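Annotated sample (chain length 346).
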Amino acid sequence: MQNEVTLSIVMPVFNHPEELKTMLDSILANIYQDWELLTVDDGSEQETLSLLEQYAKKDGRIHVIRRGRLPKGAQTCRNIGLEQAEGEYIVFFDSDDFVAPHCLEQRVREIKAHPDLDFMVFRNGIYRDNQFHIEPDRDDYGYPVWEDDIAAFCSRTLPFVVWNNIYRREALIRNGIRWDTNLLSLQDLDFNMQTLLCDMRYEYAPCPPDYGYRTVHMDKSISGKIHSKAHQQSHIYALNKLYSMTTERWKDRYDHNLYQGALFMLSILTRTEYDRTVTGEISRIVKTYSRNYGRYIRIKTCLMALLSKVLPQEITRKVVLASYLRKHYGKLRRKVAKIHGLQQPS
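Output written by the structure step:
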């Protein structure tokens, strides 16, 4: 049976009505018109719900869905949207970002021209000060700047985020790709790794940036909760799952990259305070899958425990992880330089 709609847009919503209005208006301003928008509300306040209902009343392609099951969170909302979507193709957008007027047309055109692919990756820009910026930025994704995307995901230098992509909905369903509802953050990384583990076929589209990532996050966003106990446990779960998935498929091929990813997590979770339980869990997971790298990270966590008794935590973190942080930020600088090169006309 032929799909009645070509493109499904799935978008979790939780408050922030002003940012939501910007996103909705940018979708409506797109050149391409053959779409449905599934806004899945995660328990917003009435102001946001009224705004969604107002837009849905004016445009029948916009559907308001209430999350009717647990757990709360964007991951559950995206699964609900995926289950109810009817389009041949599907994109997952965030409600506080921006899409360029050519975004939907460009993505549908390109994936239709590549019937052998399961998804395609597109470039993003930055949405800042109510403007769409496409000059190179370290928060740009969707550019083919890494030699091995799996290695990049393992080390947390993300090649692309889910909103960079357009998928064949049938391919996601056939491969059983779902959003992991145990994750409070790192959801995009997990989703993308699932597609790579399934050998889903993809290519980078050499097209102009079409998605505006809003880099200024609100207090209620994930970035504002990243050091809560719940998010710490989610990070530990994500690290263990990533190690398990990767080593089961590729053995020790990505051990070094996974170790770099563990150091990234250690850096994030020890930014404000030293937590022996958290660092101990990170060390345990690394040692479980790699004895040598387990020793390395154990040395770092023990040194961090000692220095944190006499130095401020931020200084301790920078001293212990100095070599890693220098390499990490060097990678980001090289990434921006490569993006600049890719943006130049040939």
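Annotation: The longest strand covers residues 7-13.
Annotation: The chain has 14 helices and eleven strands.
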